[in-house]
Structure formats: C-alpha cells, structure tokens
Write a structure and sequence with these properties.
The chain crosses the membrane at residues 83-103, 109-126, 172-190. It contains four helices and five strands. By secondary structure, the chain is an alpha+beta fold. The protein has two domains: 3-67, Nucleic acid-binding proteins (OB fold (Dihydrolipoamide Acetyltransferase, E2P)), CATH 2.40.50.140; 82-205, no CATH class.
C-alpha cells in the first residue's frame, strides 16, 4: 500500500530524515537509499509517496519513496559503474603479476591487499552506520585509506555496496587519490629500475 506524507526533518550529512504521514500517526524514518530518484536532494516539506518496509533490525521505515509528481518505480534502477570494478581488479591482478616476476616487493603488494580489504570493510561499516543514523566515518578517513593504497577496495565497495557512489565532490577527491597513488607507485618503480640499471652498468664496466 502506498502512503503520502510530508518530509518533516532531513539531515543531508547523515542521509536520513522523518516523514509525517497525511492524516497523522507516528513519524516514519526514511533513508536516502529509499528514494527512487537518487539525483534529487530531499528538502523539508517535500511531499512524498512511499511504501512501508522493515530494515535489518526489524524496524518500520519508508521504502520506494517518490517525490510529488513523479511516477512510482517498483524497481529502482541501480546503475553499477563496472569500469571502477574492472580497474580495481585489473590493478590488483597487475601488481600480483609484477610480484611474481620480481618487479614489486611482497611487502608493497601486501600493503595494497591489506589496505584494500580495510577500505572495503570501512565502507561497509559506514553504510551500516548511515542506515542506523549513527556517527559516520569522516570522508577524510576514507580518502586517506584510498591514498594509502586501499583505493581498489574502495572502488569495488562504492559500486557493490552502492555507497559514496553518487556524491560528485567525494568522487572527485577519490579519483584524485587514485591518480596520486598510481603516479607515486610508477615513480617508485622507475627509481627502483634505475638503481638496478646503474648497478648493472657498474658491474659491466668495473
């Protein structure tokens, strides 16, 4: 059954708010993920049409919410950016191959794998806290983890968990950390190869 109500409160930082149903009754909790239109930012006093569902804790909340004038979508399209996932998997595969052929030290590869795992878990934990309305993980922390080598895990988490995958400013900074990290890896690798070449030349002409 579809209900109609007005958005009474909304926290953009925590991505949730409360709806007061037409005709009265208890306020209904709504998370941003419940909106069919992901591009529009909810505003206080917006008129919404929604269904009632239960979250993982068994609490009632709004689901499949649409703004006034929009057609309800029973199956909201969730676009997955496969490029991010393919890039992350390709990169992890590439550093493993580089390890096998001796181009990268095992400690560096383990750093990437460990940081990626930690980053994925951090995204999952942050999404869970967002649903519960708990204190969120700072975006700066997620960016630092990505910069430290966890960006493959972050890229996979953003798409598979549908978390932090829409906010333009966050995505811009995230991809900036990816570029910086890969550039630093290439620079360090080139220095290592240069040192090996110098050592070989010294052996040949000594």
């Amino acid at each position: 059954m579809r209900l109609t109500g007005k958005l009474l409160k909304w926290s953009e930082d925590k991505c949730f708010g409360f709806i007061v149903p037409n005709g009265g009754g208890d306020h209904v909790f709504i998370h941003k993920s419940a909106f069919s239109n992901k591009k529009r930012t909810p505003q206080v006093n917006d008129i919404l049409t929604f269904s009632i569902a239960k979250d993982k804790q068994g609490r009632y909340c709004a689901d499949k919410a649409t703004f006034a004038g929009e057609k309800p979508a029973s199956h909201a399209e969730k676009h997955v950016n496969k490029f991010s996932i393919y890039l992350a998997v390709l990169f992890l595969g590439a550093i493993l191959v580089a390890l096998i052929f001796g181009y990268l030290p095992i400690n560096l590869v383990l750093l990437y794998l460990g940081a990626s795992t930690l980053c994925f878990v951090s995204y999952a934990h942050d999404k869970n806290k967002a649903k519960r309305g708990a204190w969120r993980t700072p975006e700066s922390t997620l960016h630092l983890l990505a910069l430290a080598g966890g960006w493959p895990g972050a890229a996979i988490a953003q798409q598979t968990l549908r978390h932090k995958s829409k906010k333009a400013t966050f995505r811009f900074v995230f991809w900036l950390t990816v570029i910086i990290n890969i550039s630093a890896l290439c620079w360090l690798t080139s220095l290592n190869q240069m040192d090996e070449s110098t050592s070989l030349l010294k052996m040949l002409f000594s």
